[in-house]
Amino acid sequence: MFTNTMIDWGFVIGAFVPYVVAAACHNSHYSTIWRTSLGIGVVFPIFLFVLRLFVKEPEEFTKNSMRYAKTPYLLSLKFYGWRLFVVSLIWFIYDFSAYSFGIYSSTILSNLYGNTAPLTTVFGWNTVINLFYIPGTMLGAPASDWLGPRYALALGVFLQAVVGFIMAGDYFNLSQPGMVGGFVVVYGVFLALGEFGPGNNIGLLAAKTCATGIRGKYYGVAAAIGKIGAFVGTWVFPYIQAAAGDDAVASAQYPFWVSSSLCVLSAALAVFCLPHIGQDTIAIEDARYRAYLEANGYDTRQLGLKRGESVESADERSPVEGLSETTKGEKTVG
Where is this region: Disordered (predicted)? Predict the structure, then answer.
């Protein structure tokens, strides 16, 4: 949830920086505007990458890690395949909507204020819309703690579907030139609910519905499929609009119909196809996964091996470490 909040602040800053650059360039010199905006966006991820190099892994991860062990891909797929499919599908649907609506928000707004509006107007309203992500993720954090990530996700996408259906049904009135502010508020609530639900919780579900040993691969596959959803969403968005033909109102309604319907599907998947997530879920999953591997002939002594270490050397090291810790404890007590 902390991660998603930082991402959402990135969306806000990512919209605000082009606004500042466009204002500094007096809505001209377009080449300078886009080059400067992209250049500024490169700086912060580099800082984050460098800082991540100094973060140590927790003890539980080190104990159950498969970094230097042979990963039982087939057994893992049999054990977690269905969960991975469900989590990946929810992530696909979320990114399908979130990224396409985020990228095309200025296009959607241009239907209200016209195509001749200056860049500062476009980027300014886009920044206002992105600001709605923040209350969504901030309110979603305590809701996730109270309801649990599964039900918080389902509640968020269900309410998002309701707002989306309302927007689609009443789009003609919301799209009037004098209703730009009202449209932005309703549209902002629609986006905020997306952060309240899957935005805050899909990564958490991906990290906690599997064992520690394969978490990185499991999470990576789910996240990658989510990004495929982002690509597909941004690619098909214009085609969804074009399906309405020359009807301007219908072309704006169709994306909300599609997205809201997918939100209902996400809510159903979260409620009926994912397990309960509690404080001890990871420990339980580690025990279940380890027992499953042992029952199918996998040597679980490989878990937690260090670089260049074999199972035999790990067995020799473990009793010595235990004796050393006992000796230290006796000295402390004495």
Answer: 307-334
Return the amino acid letter for 64.
N
CA nearest 228: which of 96, 37, 79?
96
Q: Is residue 186 part of a domain?
A: yes
Structure tokens, 161: 């579907």
Residue pLDDT, tens place only, 62-112: 676 777 678 899 999 999 999 999 999 999 999 998 887 876 676 667 666
d(CA 15, CA 9): 10
The CA distances from residue 233 to 15, 51, 223, in Å, are 20, 32, 15
Q: 156: domain CATH number?
A: 1.20.1250.20
In a domain, 241, yes or no: yes
- Long-range CB contacts (within 8 A, 24+) of 303-312: 303/63, 303/64, 303/65, 303/66, 303/69, 303/213, 304/62, 304/63, 304/64, 304/65, 305/65, 305/67, 305/68, 305/69, 306/68, 307/68, 308/68, 309/68
Domain residues for 158? 69-281
CA dihedral angle for residue 223, residue 226, residue 230, residue 236, rounded to 10 degrees: 150
Does the residue 309 lie in any domain? no
